[in-house]
Amino acid sequence: PGLTGGEAMKPAPFTIDARQETKPGGLGVTVEGPKESKIDVKDNGDGTCGVTYFPEVPGDYKVNVTHADRPIPGSPYTAKIKPSSQAPVDEGMIAAQKKPQAASAPPGGPPKVKAYGPGLTGG
User: Fold this and answer.
1) How is residue 118 annotated by DSSP?
2) Where do the H-state alpha helices sit in 1-123?
3) Tell me: the pLDDT tens digits for 48-70?
4) Per-chain mean pLDDT for the chain
5) CA distance 87 to 33
C-alpha cells in the first residue's frame, strides 16, 4: 500500500512529514491511474499528514506529493497496484498503463518534506 505498491480494492496508506520544513506552503496530493481513486487526508496536528487512497483496479498509479506547489523529493512516486481477488481485471486499462509516462519532478523541491509508510517497501 502507499507510495510504491498495494493491492486493488484495499486502502493504500502513507504519511507526509513536513516537520522539518520551515518555509510556508500547503501540501498537495494527487493520484493518477487507470481509474480515479478516492483520497483521504488527515492532518495529524504535529506536522504530519496521514494519506490513504483507494485504488479499485490494478495497474500503475502515479502519486504526486507537493509542498508550496513544488514536488517533494521522490515525487512523483509510482505505485504498482496488484490485482485482488475482489477486483475484476480489466486488460484494456492495464494495457493503457503501459504507455510511457513523461513526468519527473524538477530538481530542487522542498528537501525537508518527505513521504513514508508501509507502502515504501512494496505491498
Assistant:
1) G
2) 91-97
3) 999 999 999 999 999 999 999 99
4) 80
5) 15
Q: Helical H runs in 34-111? A: 91-97
Using an 8 Å Cβ cutoff, are 68 and 23 in contact? yes
73-112 as b/e: b if 16+ CB within 10 A: eebbbebebeebeebeeeeeeeeebeeeeeeebeeebbee
* Contact (CB, 8 A) for 19 and 61: no
Q: C-alpha 114: how far from its chain's center?
A: 12
> Full-prediction pTM beyond 0.90?
no
Residue type present at position 71 = P
